[in-house]
Amino acid sequence: xxxxxxxxxxxxxxxxxxxxxxxxxxxxxxxxxxxxxxxxxxxxxxxxxxxxxxxxxxxxxxxxxxxxxxxxxxxxxxxxxxxxxxxxxxxxxxxxxxxxxxxxxxxxxxxxxxxxxxxxxxxxxxxxxxxxxxxxxxxxxxxxxxxxxxxxxxxxxxxxxxxxxxxxxxxxxxxxxxxxxxxxxxxxxxxxxxxxxxxxxxxxxxxxxxxxxxxxxxxxxxxxxxxxxxxxxxxxxxxxxxxxxxxxxxxxxxxxxxxxxxxxxxxxxxxxxxxxxxxxxxxxxxxxxxxxxxxxxxxxxxxxxxxxxxxxxxxxxxxxxxxxxxxxxxxxxxxxxxxxxxxxxxxxxxxxxxxxxxxxxxxxxxxxxxxxxxxxxxxxxx
Length: 382
Hints:
By secondary structure, the protein is an alpha/beta fold. It has helices at residues 10-30, 53-59, 75-93, 105-116, 136-147, 156-164, 181-196, 199-202, 228-231, 234-247, 259-267, 285-293, 303-312, 326-330, 341-351, 369-381; strands at residues 2-7, 37-42, 66-67, 97-101, 121-124, 150-153, 174-177, 207-208, 215-216, 221-224, 253-256, 278-280, 297-300, 316-318, 334-336. It contains 16 helices and 15 strands.
């Protein structure tokens, strides 16, 4: 049996690596390599080495069977340019299932191409909703869910969201709460990151204790910024950078620059707004895990980073007015702070005096989401 996996962006490499690892283990156990074959299609949505190739190397993802080289562009251009080559691959390979991840243009293109060829679509991370349809990601999620046969949900809330839209487990769809595949990756890679990553030393983020020779961290904030609604509006981008710059007067702020963010800062001449921030190139996955785990707090507009902050028990400030990961808000580990400078700075400073949130719960599953996904597909298709 053939499965085609479509990926194109950094978070999808992480998610796909977890599922691919289980597929490989399944093949080794049952010796079904010829019958259970994963074909990897990389659209090229992320093509910078630090956003792409290094992740394949670190995560030990197999090299893509097909690299489409689509690159950047408008949403319409990207999605349209992906459709024809993905369709060609599917017609050639004739898979039983096409797996797509998350909410990018690659996700929608893969789902749409498969659905038009009557190939079942398996959507990993189904059912997420921010209920903000001005976000391209929200439209991609909704459309992909309504095109999918297998809907693998990370949380109970995701299952409920699908039910509201008439997508329920039954004859037409398989809706299953499996947990979050990114949690699988955290459990697998976090210890390796602690051992192998030297990012804290490289960025001079270790401070000696006064009474002994041991080193301590938690003396910096980590920030990530990449969503179009934050980067493509000069006023919004200026406001966020100004807030980070203000915070950095008291505690260092590390900001690995997404290519889009760097481009827009340069285009709008906003480097002066970020003069106090420690700007770096995008960092590999293991380095990112180590930065997150040891940060004093995280400021981000990334859904994945919100969850990783939760798993590491690090306070998170989300630079948006809503989030699809509402569980992190309800748990007390995440605060929506929007994009206005004053509010961001005030919330971060106020956090200093707050009590630690209550003990975390396993709201994102048990770390075996990938196994459940593979078992479900095998049970229905093999």
